[in-house]
């Protein structure tokens, strides 16, 4: 009997060290992801129907905490205001890997017509606004809960620790408030246990189950631009008696467009400089004293960012001078470039291929959107991946983008997202 036990332990050890075990682990994840898929869909619909704006994700956070506790994870609540962190300690010692989902919705009036469409409203910067999960963060919450369920079921096999980060306010906090990844990090989301690497997935309108990313710079760095101009108020009939602020705003827009298109090396790195709001005046026959414009700058290198900021500030001040006004451009709320660690990017292709065979593009195009996932990437090696979720009956051209009131996804791809998160975490901890 004793001899027989020794033999079978040796045989088991031999099996575990062969590729066959890796294959059976893959089959185990696939089976578990299939089993949890109806729950993932139910979580997605529940969160979708009850969206909450940044730093207001109280119901969502309570749901997440309840589910993680039910899985037997250690759960920290109230991290970075409404964030939740779950810690799953595997049966064997090893490294620490984090998976991140964001939980916030947007002030958008939902027009999808889905049976679980949002009817929610909330207060944002003093106004009552409609609320919708128009960026798909409802799916991120659901997929990460699904991944936590699969991984908790394999706890004994896991060599190391998986940290599940559910963060609030990815889209940015209200004016004057703080939140998002910055506050999660300040509140210790990457500490205790100390995270060695982090992965994140964002859903979008790409081909169903496509997984796209690229090494190094992926999403742009973003800076908020505010231009304030102080002029001289006058009658609309006597512009020469004051300063014509409409002309000032027009000249500023022309000058900024020329910076982005004509004064920088467009061949080396993309740059977007957008003016999105222009505010001045209350009446048709008063030329006002004040003009405020706002916009956003998107760049992929610190050098380009510094260059465009300097040129913008110089041009705006010079236009003000020309009119006899005082004009100033200020850049705030910097988000860094979302940086995919080069070595990890190379490595991550294999686990992603297991989740979505033949549909992984590791040289995706640059994205001029920005993500506060970038802040985690400044602390630990990180990879951020896009998951395509377009429904089969929606043509690629004109598919509603993230932030559209019509944004919706094919829920079948959530199973792929769950598998991708599980394989990234599991394989990272298993690698030598
Ligand atoms: Zn968004
Ligand atoms: Zn988003």
**Strand portion:** 25-35%
Low-confidence stretches: 1-18
CATH topology of the largest domain: Aminopeptidase
Q: Strands of the largest sheet, in order across it?
A: 1-2-6-3-7-18-8-17
CATH architecture grouping of the largest domain: 3-Layer(aba) Sandwich
The strand count comes to 18
Helical residues, percent: 25-40%
- Provide mean pLDDT, rounded: 94
Organism: Caulobacter hibisci
Keywords: Hydrolase, Signal
Protein name: Amidohydrolase
Pfam family, one: Peptidase_M20
Q: How are the SSEs ordered, and which strands pair?
A:
Elements lengths: L1 H15 L2 H31 L8 H13 L3 E6 L3 E7 L2 E11 L18 E4 L2 E4 L6 H16 L6 E9 L13 H6 L10 E8 L6 E2 L3 E4 L1 E10 L3 E2 L9 H18 L9 E9 L5 E2 L2 E10 L2 H22 L2 E10 L2 E3 L1 H14 L4 E2 L12 H4 L4 E7 L24 H18 L2
This protein binds zinc ion (2 copies).
The site of one zinc ion (ZN) has 4 residues, from loops.
Question: Short description, anyone?
Answer:
This protein is α+β, with helices and mostly antiparallel strands and 432 residues long.
Keywords for this structure?
Peptidase_M20_dimer, 4-stranded antiparallel sheet, Bact_exopeptidase_dim_dom, signal, Alpha-Beta Plaits, alpha+beta, 36% helix, 18 strands, 10 helices, binds zinc ion, Amidohydrolase, hydrolase, 432 residues, disordered N terminus, 2 domains, 8-stranded mixed sheet, Aminopeptidase
């Amino acid at each position: 009997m004793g001899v027989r036990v020794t033999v079978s332990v040796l045989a088991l050890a031999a099996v575990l060290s062969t590729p066959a075990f890796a294959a059976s682990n893959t089959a185990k994840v696939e089976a578990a992801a299939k089993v949890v898929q109806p729950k993932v869909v139910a979580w997605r619909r529940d969160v979708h129907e009850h969206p909450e704006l940044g730093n207001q994700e109280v119901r969502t956070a309570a749901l997440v905490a309840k589910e993680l506790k039910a899985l037997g994870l250690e759960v920290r609540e109230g991290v970075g205001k409404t964030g939740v962190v779950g810690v799953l300690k595997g049966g064997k010692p090893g490294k620490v890997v984090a998976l991140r989902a964001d939980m916030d919705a947007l002030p958008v009036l939902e027009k999808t017509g889905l049976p679980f469409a949002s009817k929610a409203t909330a207060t944002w910067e003093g106004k009552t606004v409609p609320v919708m999960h128009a960026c798909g963060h409802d799916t991120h919450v659901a997929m990460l809960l699904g991944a936590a369920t699969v991984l908790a079921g394999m706890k004994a096999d896991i060599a190391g620790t998986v940290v599940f980060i559910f963060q609030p306010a990815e889209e940015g906090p209200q004016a004057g408030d703080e939140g998002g990844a910055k506050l999660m990090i300040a509140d210790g989301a990457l500490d205790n246990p100390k995270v060695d690497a982090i992965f994140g997935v964002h859903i979008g309108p790409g081909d169903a189950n496509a997984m796209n990313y690229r090494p190094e710079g992926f999403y742009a760095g973003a800076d908020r631009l505010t231009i304030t101009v102080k002029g001289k108020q006058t009658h609309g009939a006597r512009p020469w008696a004051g300063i014509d602020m409409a002309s000032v705003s027009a000249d500023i827009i022309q000058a900024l467009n020329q910076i982005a298109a004509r004064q920088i090396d467009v061949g080396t790195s993309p740059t977007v400089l957008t003016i999105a709001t222009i505010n001045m005046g209350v009446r048709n026959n008063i030329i006002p004293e004040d003009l405020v414009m706002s916009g956003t700058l998107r760049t992929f290198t610190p050098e380009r960012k510094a260059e465009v900021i300097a040129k913008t500030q110089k041009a705006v001040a010079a236009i003000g001078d020309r009119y006899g006004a005082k004009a100033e451009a200020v850049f705030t709320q910097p988000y860094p470039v979302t940086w995919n660690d080069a070595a990890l990017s190379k490595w991550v292709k294999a686990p992603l291929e297991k989740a979505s065979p033949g549909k992984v593009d590791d040289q995706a195009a640059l994205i001029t959107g920005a993500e506060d996932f970038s802040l985690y990437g400044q602390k630990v090696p990180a990879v951020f991946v896009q998951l395509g979720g377009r429904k089969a009956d929606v043509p690629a051209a004109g598919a509603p983008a993230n932030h559209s009131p019509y944004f919706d996804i094919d829920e079948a791809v959530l199973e792929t997202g769950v598998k991708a998160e599980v394989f990234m975490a599991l394989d990272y901890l298993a690698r030598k």
